[in-house]
Structures are given as structure tokens and as C-alpha cells.
Amino acid sequence: MDLLTSILAIAVFAGASLVYASVGEILTERSGILNLGVEGMMIMGAVTAFAAAVASGNAVVGVVVGGLVGGTLALVHAFLTITLRADQVVSGLALTLAGGGLASFLGQRLGPGGAPLVGMVGPRFRSITIPGLSDIPVIGPAFFDQDALVYLLFLVVPLAWFLLARTRPGLYLRAVGENPQTADAMGIDVFKVRYLYTFVGGVMAGVAGAHLSLAYTPGWTENLTGGRGWIAVALVIFATWDPRKAVAGALLFGGVNAIQFRLQAEGTTIPASLLNMMPYILTIVVLVVITRFESIRKKVGAPAALGLPYNREERT
Amino acid sequence: MNLPYRITLEKRLDTPRIVLWLVPVVSILIALAFGAIVLAFAGANPLEAYGQILTGAFGSLTAWLDGQFYAVSETVVRTVPLILTGLAVAVAFRMRFWNIGAEGQLVFGGVFAAWVALFLPGVIPGIPQTPWVYLPLMALAAVAGGAIWALIPAFLKAYLEVDEIITTIMLNFVAILTYQYLFTGPWKDPEGQGFPGSALFPEFTWLPRLTGRVTLGLVLALAAAVVVWLVFDHTKLGYEIALMGENPEAARYAGVNRASIIIVVMVLSGGLAGLAGFTETAGISHRLQQGLAIGNGFTGIIVAWVAKLRPGWIVVVAFLLSALFVGGDQLQISMGLPASIGAFFQGMILLFILGGDVFTRYRVKITRRPAAVAVEV
Fold this sequence. Notes:
The complex is a heterodimer.
Chain A: H1 3-30, H2 38-56, H3 59-83, H4 88-107, E1 128-129, H5 139-143, E2 145-146, H6 148-166, H7 168-178, H8 180-185, H9 190-216, H10 228-238, H11 243-265, H12 272-276, H13 278-296
Antiparallel strand pairs in A: 1-2
Helix pairs in contact in A: 1-6, 1-9, 1-10, 1-11, 2-3, 2-4, 2-9, 2-10, 3-4, 3-9, 6-7, 7-9, 10-11, 10-13, 11-13
Chain B: E1 5-11, H1 17-41, H2 46-58, H3 61-65, H4 70-94, H5 102-123, H6 131-160, H7 164-184, E2 209-211, E3 214-215, H8 217-234, H9 236-246, H10 248-253, H11 258-285, H12 296-306, H13 311-335, H14 341-356, H15 358-361, E4 362-368, H16 371-374
Antiparallel strand pairs in B: 1-4, 2-3
Helix pairs in contact in B: 1-2, 1-14, 2-4, 2-13, 4-8, 4-11, 4-12, 4-13, 5-6, 5-7, 5-11, 5-12, 6-7, 6-11, 8-9, 8-11, 8-13, 12-13, 12-14, 13-14
């Protein structure tokens, strides 16, 4: 494997959790709900997925549990912001803070017999080489020598895009996010749509966490997500709420991770803490560039009703 | 959904005082009840655990009678940075500028203060080496450090419309990694024998203690609360901040310069967070080491929101949440429960406060559905 191939392979592997989380958040935000709890749902998904996988001896059970936990937390956010009309920014932050605390608490309790999960080895997703396709030069080993959760993305991303851009439910989803009053008048159940896609976004954040604890790391350590949930939120803006572009963004960030590993493996003299800053600084730079670029084109894709509670009795 | 009655939310025009008081108290009680369930699942007796938190945070009656106030004084020690970060967050949130970066701004304040303590005596030996000169210099440096770090997202938002939530969060990570690099790299104590941390600050840069480990930082934090209260309630700036938060369009018509007020607010916000970095390094650790970034910036968000962004309440809420932390540490020592339970409780309290808030903003009405029965005949 030459250098480019190996960097691309790590980029795909490291970017997978970002794709899950950001595509999920895109669906949520398209319905008009801003959920800043991604980091919290992701870390809760990671710890519960790993615990369930250890307990059942089956990594797939882990993914299902992690996804459901993420979805359940998202429903808390949905109840607070959709039904009780609480502030979406603060509710999402609260979810991240509570999720982080609960995850490290559970990490010390959810092992077999109440033991800590830290340092434990459990079932994991291993890479499956797809014969034929993996022989394609450069792209082959990078895209077709990965684990099952990465392959699932080959299905999830096109489906999410197709749903949004080409189907009636996708049209309803966008209508709810752009103009809930009109959507309501059309007979769309605004509350139901918002609950549904907030839940879906939470499930995908949970699965993103599961990929970290069951394939990427694998295992559980405190602070496993390390801000990936927030990078995923930034990717939503980067992608201008389009699932296809989220993949490009995630590959970019995965690529930075890969270069980081590469430099460390070659014994660079750059201190590790400075190398570890790269993804965070890149997030800011990319956000600045994209905001500049989009405002020049006068086409920032944010759903018009993003962050606003909907109240049938109030006219705006 | 064919319930025989329906629940509607009706906007309150003005909220009775009793509701304003009762709702947060009941919300916290429900959060604690919910926490009791979690504790029970974790295999701990909830009543015993809450008892331990109380004695851990405030001490026991017998200790008080012996004249020992160690527990309370530790709670006060932990309150100081929370007041400052709570104020920092409140200043920005009042304008609906979502500064999630108090953690990084605190760290940068600590780094700047540490530089003054460690290196200024060597760079300019002429400065009198007394606390009277050095402490104000360190405090100013810390304010500058926090403010500079806060200005990055402020400029990006004011002139380029870049989302401040993401930039402030990302800058937290960058600040923490920078400070870790400093005390494990260039600023590492050469005589530290591998201990990761800077050299000890010279003694004339230590904040004087009032009692126990409580330092002059407490006075500083309380003074900051008074200043922020004055700014909020008695200055034009405070009015403009609130107006920008409530209605940016109206603020524009009133002639408020959006860019300059964002910058002023973030200098204030970052400066307050930076000051917390000063009280923690000059008052507690006396060196730059692990333990400066322990989440005070994030807890500040909870403090500010639970206190409804009111400076007076921020002092009270900071003290109560600090009690939860100190009591939570006690829980770890005496009952073997992870200390992170404290962080979980705080996040949960915020969630319940948020949910409960609906009752202060809306009147909940339950009405019978009349039509369904009558139509039959």
C-alpha cells in the first residue's frame, strides 16, 4: 500500500463516525430542530454499545443498543424543545453535559458484575475485504477493506440524500423546517415530523459512538469522543445541510487524523499536543471559509425555521 | 390521539411571583428524585448518598460545634471560579451570543497569569516584588488572556458571521492543548523530576488566604458579580446588550452597533472567565499543572442559565452547584461511587429546570373536548 492509499484508508475509517453523526444531525436540523447534544448522545452511544457488546458477546447487539440510547436521549431534547418549547441551544448543551457525566459514570459500572469498562477487551467489528472491488488501485483498499459499519454508510448516505431531495416525506421534512405554519396548513403534522427526525438524528449519533467503541478505538476510555460530536455539528454547516457534502467534510477530517498518525509513526519532533490541535483548528478555518463562500453566493442553506419553536396558536 | 380532554399552553402575560419561585424549586426537587432512582440503580442507598453529599459539602453538626468548618470552606473554594464563569456566560448569553468557550478563556487567563508569575521577574527585574504590585498585574494579564481568546470568535462573528457556538467550542480544545503543551514542554519545571507542571510561583504572587483555603479570590468574584449587576441594570451598555438579545432588529433601529457590542461583550465575558484562571492559579495551585481545565467553564453555563442570567442568583447557584461537586467527591471517598455522578446531576438539573420553565412562561390549560359526545344524537 502506498502512502496515498494508506492515508485515504485511515481517513475513511476515522471519518465514518463523523458521517453518521453529521448526516443524522442534517436530518434533525432540516426539520427545524437544532440539537447540540450530538456529543452527549455520541458518547452515551459509545459506552452503552460497548457495554452491551461485552455483555452479549455480539457487536451487532452493541450497535442496536447504542443507537437506541442515542435516540432516547434525542427524545428528551425533542420533548423539551418541541412540546415544552424550551431553548434549543441550552437544551442541547444540557444533553451534552448530562450525557458526558452519565457516560463516565456508566463506564465505571457497566462491565460484567458492575466492573469498570475501561481497559476491557470486547467484541468488535473487523475489516471485511470485498473481493474484486478491493483490488482497484488506490480507492479499492481504502473503501473496500473496511468494517461493516462503514459499508452500511454506502447505503445510508445515498438513502438520506434521496429521502431529502427526491421523495414526498423528504419534501414534508423540508417544509416543516422551512415554514412550519405553511406545512401545518398543508396538513403535515409538524410535531410528529420533528419528533421523528430528532429521534433519527439521535439514533445515528448513537451509532456513530458505537463505531468509535466497537471498531475505531476499539474499547472504552473516558472522553472517548474527544469533541467529534461537535466537529459533526460543524460539518453540518460545512455541508450546507446536504448529506453528500457531509461525506466530503468527514473525509477531510479523517484525512487530518491520518496525517497526524503518519507523522507520529515517523517520529516527528512536533509535540503531540500541537498535532492534536489540527482537527479543531481546521474546523474553525473550514467554517470561516465556507461561511464566506456561502454568503458571497447568498445561499446559506440553513432551514429558515431552525431553532424556532412552533406554536399553532401564535402567528408570526 | 382522541383523548376526552386536551392540554393547551396559553402564554402568560405576567407571571405571579409565587410561580417564579416555586417552579425552579420543584424542578430541582424532581431532578433530585430522578437522581435518587439512578443512584438506586447504581446500587447505592439514595437517602444515605444525599446525606453524604450534604455532610460532604457543608460538614456535620458535630464538626460545627467543634468549630470545624473545613467542608463549607472547601465548597466556598469551589464556588469562586463558578461565580466568575457563570457571570462570563451570563454576559454573553444575555445578548444571545452563545459563548461556550468559558473553559478555554479560563485556561488562557491562567496561562497569562502564570507567565507573569514565572517569567516577568526575570524579564523586568525592576518591578517591586510584592503582592501589591504583582497580584494586580497577574489579574490584568489573566483578564487580557481570557479576552484575547474570546476576541477570536467575537471578530469571526461580528465581521464574517461565523457561527460562534462551533468556534468557541473548538477554541476550548485548542486552549487546553496549548496549556498542556506549555506545562509539559517549554514551561516544565527543570527541577520537577518528571512531574508534569511548571515551577512553583514565587510566594509574592500567591493570593492571600482569608480562612482555610479560601482566598481573596472570593472577594474578587463577589465584586465582579456587583459590577456585572451594575452593568446589566444601570448602564446603557446593559440595556443595549439586553435589547440585542431580545430583538436584534429593534436594536439596529435604536442605533446599536452590532459589531462593536459583540466585541465589547466578549471582552467582558472572556475577561471574567480569564479572571477565574487567575484565582485558580494564583490562589490554589500556585503553578501551572493538570487540573485547571476541570469543566468550570461548562458548569458556568448551568450556573448562568439556572440563575436566569441574574448576577445575584449566579452567586447563590454557584454555591449550590459547588456543594454538589464537593459532596460528590465525598460520595466517591465514602461510598465508592464515581465522582462523575456530580457532573451528571448538574446536567440533569439543567434539563429539569429547562422543562419546568414552561410553567413560568405558559399557563397549562386542561379542557374537556365538548363536541364528541353531543354530535351522536
